Amino acid sequence: MVTIYDIVRRLEAEPLLDDLARGFAAEVADPAWLLGRQWQLGEHQGEDASSPVQISYNIRLTPIQVPDGADPLTTPAEAIVESEPGDFWTAGRRVTAGRLVEAAAAAAGRPLPTDDPTLLLAELPTPYDLLDGSGYDGRALWDRTDLGLDLNWFGTLQPPADPEDLWNPAEFSYDAEFSAGDANLRVQRHDGGHLDWFSADATGSVASTLTCQVSAYPGRIHYPGAPLPRWWQIENGKVDIGGYPPDRSHFATLLLIDLIMNQSDDWFSFPIDALTGHIITLSDVTVIDSFGESWPLSPPADGWSLFATEGLDPQSLVVWATAAAPLTGPVLDEVTLGIDEDANLVWAVEQRLRGRDKATPEDPHPAPPESVNAIGRPSFTYQVATRIPPRWHPYLIEEIAGRRRFVQGRAADLSTEPTPLPEPESDLLRVSAVHPVHEIEPAAIPTDGLRLERRAMLARRTDGTPLLWTQRRRIPLLTPPALRLRYDVLEPEPPVTT
Question: Where is this region: Disordered (predicted)?
Answer without folding.
Answer: 355-375
